[in-house]
Amino acid sequence: MLSALKKYLLIPKLVRLSSAAPKDPQAAWDQYWGKVRTTGARGDVLWDSGDDHELQGYLEHLKRQMNPDLPIVDVGCGNGTFSRRLAAHFPHVLGVDVSANAVAKARAESEGLERISFITADMTAPGAARSVNAALTEAGVSGEANVFIRGVLHVLKRRDQAALAEQLHPLLGKRGRVFLAETDFRGNAVEYVSHLGATRQFIPAPLRDAICGLPMPGRFGAAQRLRAFPESLWDVVEDGPAVIETRPLTSAEPEQIPGYFSVLQAR
Ligand SMILES: C[S@@+](CC[C@H](N)C(=O)[O-])C[C@H]1O[C@@H](n2cnc3c(N)ncnc32)[C@H](O)[C@@H]1O
């Protein structure tokens, strides 16, 4: 009992560390990506596990539910880790991120690869769908598209989740679908960081960087999906539990966070 309560002694440290994060989330993301030096299993980025085990788990759903003849838009692509892996399964991948620093990293890490391109855009902004369409046209793959989103909705405020979903709707047409995978951790911030190895004495560096620089994440499960993707506009094709993997923090293996996935189509 006492040891379970001990983790709450972390609260003052978390408050102190997170108080330095920029208040504007988009500025925070760009500043965060500007400081990233290395990615992958030994890198700076908390959610970049460095292997494709997590995607392997999604492929069953992606292959069954998504039209492989359509391009796929990786929304909130970060440094493009998943974009590059998706390129093996779709004719073109367009990665989109609000952070110009993230997109610069994604382009650098994808140099020499074909059928993959990146743009900077705020996917919650009116007109984001138009920018995506223009980029798909430029890539020679205009028309309907699939969408992949991993680890983005759970960091957005509720109204931004709905705004983002609204921008996705016109991209899909009749044949495109959305695949989303998000963390759905049932616990408070202290329990979340403790789950990822934080103690009062030590916080793993990639976790510490995220706490210091980024908006506090929430959870995104079926209830949040229903609010952001209302039944009047969206059909759920499939959904269920997922496991989100992070960079190894407490051992040589990636950490695992309980998550939620859903495949959706526009009504
Ligand atoms: C936790 S990271 C996940 C990155 C990537 N999807 C992955 O799984 O490796 C969240 C990403 O969403 C991006 N992001 C946050 N708000 C966004 C917005 N409004 N529009 C587009 N991208 C956004 C951030 O810059 C960041 O790269």
Tell me what the structure shows.
This protein is an alpha/beta fold. The chain has one domain (2-266): Vaccinia Virus protein VP39 (Rossmann fold, 3-Layer(aba) Sandwich). The protein has eleven helices and seven strands. It has helices at 2-6, 11-18, 25-35, 53-65, 81-86, 100-109, 128-138, 158-172, 189-195, 205-213, 222-228, and strands at 72-75, 93-97, 116-120, 146-150, 178-183, 234-248, 254-266. The chain has a seven-stranded mixed sheet with strand order 3-2-1-4-5-7-6, with helices on both faces. A hairpin with a 5-residue loop joins strand 6 (234-248) and strand 7. Helix 3 (25-35) packs parallel to helix 6 and helix 7 runs parallel beside helix 8 (158-172). The model has no long low-confidence stretch (mean pLDDT 96).
Notable features of this structure?
267 residues, alpha/beta, 7 strands, seven-stranded mixed beta sheet, Rossmann fold
Secondary structure layout:
Layout: H1 2-6, H2 11-18, H3 25-35, H4 53-65, E1 72-75, H5 81-86, E2 93-97, H6 100-109, E3 116-120, H7 128-138, E4 146-150, H8 158-172, E5 178-183, H9 189-195, H10 205-213, H11 222-228, E6 234-248, E7 254-266
Helix pairs in contact: 3-6, 7-8
